[in-house]
Design a protein that fits this description.
Oligomer: single chain
Helix content: 55-70%
Distance between the termini: 17 Å
Largest sheet: 2 strands, antiparallel
Radius of gyration: 21 Å
Order of helices and strands: HEEEHHHHE
Number of strands: 4
Structural class: mainly alpha
């Protein structure tokens, strides 16, 4: 039903991800890379470091680790396991969204949710 509603609103044509950064290749240490790939590598490193700091050095990270170890005991220590689980899933969904945007930007993925629908 969602596919049909989206098809009625936006049509059946493919939509490509817009080119956000220049696509001119750059020579670095004998390798040819693009600005987009360098941005993806840098953004990935920043996100991984941020996630590591979040999990290892914050109260939320401590609550996440405690909930993962034993939710009942974490609840006895004042941690709301349901809230921690909800926040953890929200962080995971956000990271998946960023990964999807980086993938689409890097490979200029053509997307169509009706690719499996016959004409």
């Amino acid at each position: 039903m969602l596919q049909t509603v989206a098809m009625l609103i936006w049509g059946r044509s493919y939509m490509t991800f817009p080119q956000l950064l220049p696509s001119d290749p750059i020579e670095m240490f004998g390798a040819t890379v693009t600005v987009t790939k360098l941005v993806v590598i840098g953004l990935s490193a920043v996100i991984m470091i941020g996630l590591m700091v979040l999990v290892n050095r914050s109260k939320l990270g401590r609550a996440m680790r405690a909930t993962a170890e034993n939710p009942r005991v974490a609840g006895l220590m004042g941690v709301d396991p349901n809230m921690v689980i909800m926040i953890t899933f929200a962080i995971g969904a956000s990271l998946a969204a960023v990964a999807g945007v980086m993938l689409a930007a890097t490979y200029s993925v053509r997307t169509s949710i009706w690719a499996s629908c016959p004409d």
